[in-house]
Amino acid sequence: MKNIAVLGSTGSIGTQTLDIIEAHPDIFKANVLTANKNWELLAKQALKFRPSLVVITDESYYKNLKEALKDTKIKVECGTESLALAPTLEEVDIVVTALVGYSGLIPTVNAIKRGKTIALANKETLVVAGEIITTLAKENNVNILPVDSEHSAIFQCLNGEEHKNMSKILLTASGGPFRSLSKEDLKHVTVKQALNHPNWDMGAKVTIDSASMMNKGFEMIEAKWLFNCNPDDIEILVHPQSLVHSMVQFCDGSVKAQIGIPDMRIPIQYALSYPERLNSPQFILDWSKVNQLTFEKPDMEKFPLLRLAFEAIHKGGNMPCILNAANEIANKAFLDEKISFTMMSSLVEAIMTSAHFIQNPSLEDLIETNKETRKLSQKWIETH
């Protein structure tokens, strides 16, 4: 029996993780569940899965959650400090980091320090602090198992291979809902259109990042740290069918691909059960219905956030942290209809040139960088 802490259990990844736990009750137990604001769904999940601990980050919902669980033995806590400590419970074996954005960093750091296996769905953790996280994991002999479908694919392709034989990672992207639009058309797209992803069911923040291709930039940075490679050895390919989840090219010209239906429960389950595979007949791909697999290069002029991600990781230091914080503010501002779709990249690029750069940041430096960048980004929005 593996005890699982699901950080962000009410989000898209979190709810699908609970689907896997429910399907295999003899193997997995939900031991910790956390949410930001959605106390009602968190309460329902807690009553169903009976974890030891639940945490609601927004303290204003603590009384509601406490009242809903008053007839149980489930411990109820609230606040960011409780969230940061939740994955460190002694009985927890695997921590699924399904939190959105920067919020996943400190809980992940704490979990690694306590020797927990990390099932990483929060790519921003490695975007913000990739060197710190990977070094910490090595020092504590902790496995970081990727949950993103693309990184799970790369991980599976590299299984049994010598790292020195890898020549290139081929990171696939759906292209999002605006792949066929012109640069001019992008100035007028709506939030509703951006949230209409053609292949994947994701939370609002990740869906907007997918539409802008910022998500693929983050995934490139995540891949650099997960697989210890040069960003120049990561090629991004737009693959609208979303069946080839990524590929690895080797020194002899051979290419391995991981292929499957676009369902996040597949990589989640693989991360939880690794190194075993569990039977899941509902996920089987019907090859007779696969008519074509196409690939094309992304247009970085049309989607400049992808270009900015490469610039950030090449500069290094705290620049990826600046990139992430500025993007989080831009993403929310677009969702709130305060800025246009194309203004997101304008904001991020402006803040990358104005925020304080640190070549070798500590964790404390990154925490301060995150705060500073958010203030600068908010000020940019107020003046544009």
**Order of helices and strands, N to C?**
EHEHEHEHEHEHEHEHHHEEEHHHHH
**Class of secondary structure makeup:** alpha/beta
How far apart lie the N and C ends? 54 Å
User: Overall 3D geometry?
Assistant: globular
On the 0 to 100 scale, the average pLDDT is: 95
Low-confidence stretches are: none
| Helix fraction bin | 40-55%
What's the number of helices? 15
For the biggest sheet, the summary is: 7 strands, parallel
How many strands? Answer: 11
Radius of gyration: 20 Å
- The strand line-up of the biggest sheet is 4-3-2-1-5-6-7
Report the sheet-strand fraction: 15-25%
How would you describe what is shown here?
The strands form 2 sheets. A 7-stranded parallel sheet has the order 4-3-2-1-5-6-7, sandwiched between helices. Strand 10 and strand 11 (255-259) form a beta hairpin. The longest helix has 20 residues, at 363-382. The model has no long low-confidence stretch (mean pLDDT 95). Helices cover 43% and strands 15% of the residues. The protein starts with a strand and ends with a helix. It has helices spanning 12-23, 39-49, 62-68, 80-85, 105-113, 124-139, 149-158, 191-194, 204-212, 214-226, 265-273, 304-315, 319-335, 343-354, 363-382, and strands spanning 2-7, 28-35, 53-56, 75-78, 94-97, 117-120, 144-146, 166-173, 234-238, 244-250, 255-259. It is α/β, with parallel strands linked by helices. It has 15 helices and 11 strands. Helix 2 runs parallel beside helix 3 (62-68), helix 5 (105-113) runs parallel beside helix 6 and helix 13 packs antiparallel against helix 14.
